[in-house]
Design a protein that fits this description.
Layout lengths: L1 H19 L3 H23 L6 H9 L6
Helix pairs in contact: 1-2
Keywords: Membrane, Transmembrane, Transmembrane helix
Length: 67
Amino acid sequence: MIALLFLVYSLVEWYMAKKKTRAPREKWTMLILIILLSAWNFVAVVNDRWITPNQLILLLFGWMDQF
């Protein structure tokens, strides 16, 4: 449920930024990034074996917690 809330929030932010930004490439890059990350998060919620973004960050940078 929280993932859907953040998806809606990010799409509203993208729509607002789309009005202000003049570079079309930046607008569509952000939209594609939002869609890809939302799909990844949705698959992680549905499938227990799929790694979530937070788990990936812990795997990549968890070794820094030891220092």
